[in-house]
Design a protein that fits this description.
The chain is an alpha/beta fold and 233 residues long. It contains seven helices and seven strands, in the order E-H-E-H-E-H-E-H-E-H-E-H-H-E. 40% of the residues lie in helices and 17% in strands. It has a seven-stranded parallel sheet with strand order 3-2-1-4-5-6-7, sandwiched between helices. The termini are far apart. The mean pLDDT is 91.
Length: 233
Amino acid sequence: MNFIVTGASRGIGFEIVLQLAESETNKVIALSRSDLSKLVETGKQLNGNTAIYPLTFDLKSDNNDQLVQLIESELGSNVDGLINNAGTLINKPMVELTRENWQEVFDVNVFGVASLIKSVKPYMGKKNKGHIVNIGSMGGFQGTDKFPGLSAYSSSKGALACMSECLAKEFENDNIYVNCLALGAVQTEMLAQAFPDYTAPLSAKEMGTFIADYVVNGHKIMNGKVLPVAFKN
């Protein structure tokens, strides 16, 4: 199977790629603005035949030509799963947020995701069922407790959840399924940025393992769902 994972240089995205690449039948394009050499090296240590294709990629650039070329040259123009994991966060009181702050968060968390899906969609659903998994947040899940300082981030994740529901309907006749996972607290650098004194109950590896399995199997039983994924005692 062929996959694309954004935000792959660290945290949950890093672990998702490693989990998917453990199988010698899988190929994974890993996208990140940051260096991906550690990911590729770690993948080779776990599986000498791992097929990880790194690509420096900025969701804000709206230039997906290199990605499209890689899909055509390495994945045989077929993508089974797209995991939109990359995200950005600004922790600042709402009255201190500038228009540029809002634009930065939505550029990555919403507009960049939409642009990427538009570019990848033509390569999905042709041979097998395609599954797009958008990584949201409990902060963007309607009815949950919200946290001060995260209005831009949570709003963007709420928009991503709604977009997931809309695209599931738009793509239902194209053999492409779309779901959104609203993640709770996971021990990542982003969490430490938002809550420096808090230790999450789940590690990035634990969540990455769950998401890797979900992109392979979740669409077999659901479509257009926004699912809260949070640790419960």
